Amino acid sequence: MDEQLINDSIFILRETLAEFKNPAILWSTGKDSTASLGLCKESFLGKIPFPVIHIDTGYKFLQMYEFRDALVEEWKLDLIIAQNKEERKRGLSPKDGKLECCTKLKTEALLQCLKKHKFDALILSIRRDEHGIRGKERVFSPRQSDFTWSYQDQPLEVWDIYQNLTKAKGHTRVHPILHWTELEVWEYMQLRKLPVNPMYFAKNGMRYRSLGCEPCTAPMESNADTIDKIVEELRTTKVAERSGRAQDKESSFAMQKLRMLGYM
User: Hey, which of 50, 165, 231, 241 would disulfide with 19, CB 3.0 to 4.6 Å?
Assistant: First the structure.
């Protein structure tokens, strides 16, 4: 693991706390956002100095909720659970269409949370190598007042110089591990001995590489049941990271549409 990658991420997180009045971090309980929580602790003397948002669609795996609650207690996280209660009460589910479900239960739930708490910056754990559309992102990415993402109108970021950090019309998305790869995330987890959602470890020849809602996520063939084995597996695998996720959402067109609306 290149320590410079870690140092770059720490710089981004410290700049966020310095530049914004009311930031928060999004946490799914997955590997990437848990790594970002670890980076926050490393950046701020063992503490996470802002709220941690978990979007609860009501369709997450039981193990995700158990891991979330255990780490909240262990790390004393200031947890905010974001829900679109109206749509959940109405019974919206992936059966109604995964695009609509993600928009209503994830994107709109997050929008409601941001408006309620007036967060001006949101730290997310996306990576450029994860999906082609995410490759269009910037480290500091402004959102419009209506929550949308104008991917054709993003600030230049060259030589690690970030422009106009606090001038977004709505809020700013901050991506501290945008420059990392899946392998580097696991190497960081391995190096810092961070807690890991047990769903990532293989059982009966299957494991999850990317976590989402239970109806939309499938395990993949693997015998990697430790972090060391996952790191070794990723050095040789040809299988795409998100191939276990719902395909109608993972197409480039669908993902771009979702992200323009405010999806993570």
Answer: 165
